[in-house]
């Protein structure tokens, strides 16, 4: 008898987000599977959180569905146990890593800004930044 490992919270979240976008677009499991060359059954396993979707597959799905990759991760809330596990893995608290090269950060920020489709979204981002800096 094999023991099942507990479902990964992030894997479950990604699966739910995949199901959400697939059903919003009125797509079948098979049609989504075609984007990443897997079966409808495999897509169902991703959606249920039974199997983890690879970064490559997630990237291809985001491109095929014309959504930002970050959409899959939005609204995911890390649990305290997960944060402790991550801290033990990397040997540092979450949020303490900083990329080097300020030019790279500016370039990334500008590229995100340019991809915002509406002025309303740009104004919301500016409002968020202002509220963060004024606190």
SSE arrangement:
Elements: H1 9-24, H2 29-36, H3 40-48, H4 55-64, H5 70-73, H6 80-90, H7 102-115, H8 119-134
Structure description:
This protein is mostly helical and 135 residues long. The chain folds into two domains: 9-77, 434 Repressor (Amino-terminal Domain), CATH 1.10.260.40; 102-134. The protein has eight helices and no strands. The protein has helices spanning 9-24, 29-36, 40-48, 55-64, 70-73, 80-90, 102-115, 119-134. Helix 1 (9-24) crosses helix 3 (40-48) and helix 2 (29-36) packs across helix 3. The mean pLDDT is 81.
Second CATH tier, the architecture of the largest domain: Orthogonal Bundle
Give the helix level as a range of percent.
55-70%
Task: Please report the first level of CATH classification, the CATH class of the largest domain.
Answer: Mainly Alpha
Structural class: mainly alpha
Find the count of extended strands (DSSP E, 2+ residues): 0
Unreliable stretches, pLDDT < 50, 5 or more residues? none
Looking at CATH, the homologous superfamily of the largest domain is lambda repressor-like DNA-binding domains
Strand content: under 5%
Question: What number of structural domains do the residues give?
Answer: 2
Q: What value does the Rg take, in angstroms?
A: 18 Å
CATH topology of the largest domain: 434 Repressor (Amino-terminal Domain)
Order of helices and strands: HHHHHHHH
So what's the overall shape?
globular
Report the average pLDDT across residues. Answer: 81
In this structure, how is the largest beta sheet organized? none
> Helical element count?
8
Whole-Å distance between the termini?
Answer: 56 Å
């Amino acid at each position: 008898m094999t023991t099942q490992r507990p479902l990964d919270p992030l894997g479950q979240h990604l699966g739910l987000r995949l199901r959400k976008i697939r059903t919003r677009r009125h797509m079948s499991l098979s049609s989504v599977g075609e984007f990443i060359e897997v079966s409808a059954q495999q897509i169902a396993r991703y959606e249920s959180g039974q199997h983890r979707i690879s970064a490559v597959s997630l990237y291809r799905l985001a491109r095929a569905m014309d959504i930002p990759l970050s959409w899959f991760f939005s609204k995911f809330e890390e649990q305290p146990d997960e944060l402790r596990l991550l801290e033990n893995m990397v040997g540092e608290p979450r949020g303490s890593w900083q990329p080097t090269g300020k030019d790279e950060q500016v370039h990334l920020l500008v590229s995100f800004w340019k991809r915002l489709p509406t002025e309303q979204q740009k104004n919301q981002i500016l409002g968020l930044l202002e509220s963060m800096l004024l606190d």
